[in-house]
TrEMBL record:
It comes from Rossellomorea marisflavi. Transmembrane segments: none annotated. PANTHER family: DNA UTILIZATION PROTEIN YHGH. Belongs to the ComF/GntX family. It comes from the Bacteria. This is Phosphoribosyltransferase domain-containing protein. Residues 138-221 form the Phosphoribosyltransferase domain. CDD domains: PRTases_typeI.
């Protein structure tokens, strides 16, 4: 039975290269769409910011200069650069409700996601969840077949995309964590995109205060 690329809708088998022949039962994007996703190589060792050749980026150096934030987030692993193609993919996924793209994005997580005791999706506020219809971070875990631990809740605030970089990095805490003992746990936060790292660090600091041994994060894209 012919299959369609989950992004462009073209015939998946016809648009596959011969080299991908033996993957035709598992791949969800055609070669052309897959080629639009730029993998990150040689990024910042802490946040995966592209083009750093193993050195710390300016954002991570700034976070490290703040004692209250230094070491809160062990590391962020991002798969792809936030190029124009990825911007359109995530816009369709998050803002236009194209849930099926969760399957395509999650397919890249299987061999790349770090091990952890708990996988915690970044939550949406109830208002934002109603607006979008689903939590894009939780959907990635679900489609990747990974356990999902909803430990955090979120208050409703202005969209991060409407804030400046400085406003994002100095924003107030937006998460709540129910009283729970996370002593010794290694936790991995899941989100669709890492931009400044503020959202992930706000989540991480609560988890560390609850006893978590280590908190890292995994995102599809690095902005």
């Amino acid at each position: 039975m012919p299959r369609d690329c989950l992004y462009c809708g073209g015939d998946l088998d016809e648009k596959m290269s011969w080299g991908a022949f033996f993957q035709r039962d598992t791949r969800l994007l055609c070669d052309e769409c897959d080629g639009g996703l730029l993998r990150i190589e040689g990024g910042c060792p802490v946040c995966s910011r592209p083009g750093m050749d193993g050195g710390l980026c300016s954002d991570c150096m700034e976070w490290n200069r703040k004692p209250e934030w230094n070491g809160v987030l062990e590391r962020n692993v991002s798969l792809f650069q936030y190029n124009e193609f990825m911007k359109e993919v995530l816009a369709r996924y998050k803002y236009r409700g194209d849930y099926v793209l969760a399957k395509a994005l999650a397919s890249f997580m299987q061999t790349a996601i770090p091990k952890a005791d708990l996988f915690v999706p970044i939550p949406l506020s109830p208002e934002r969840l109603y607006e979008r219809g689903f939590n894009q971070s939780k959907a990635l875990l679900t489609e990747a077949g990974l356990p999902c631990h909803d430990l955090l809740t979120r208050t409703h605030t202005e969209k991060q995309s409407k804030k400046t970089r400085r406003e994002r990095m100095t924003g107030a805490q937006v998460f709540r964590l129910s009283e729970t003992d996370l002593s010794g746990k290694k936790i991995l936060l899941i989100d669709d995109i890492y931009t400044t790292g503020t959202t992930l660090r706000h989540a991480a600091i609560l988890l560390k205060k609850a006893g978590a041994r280590e908190v890292s994060s995994f995102t599809i894209a690095r902005g």
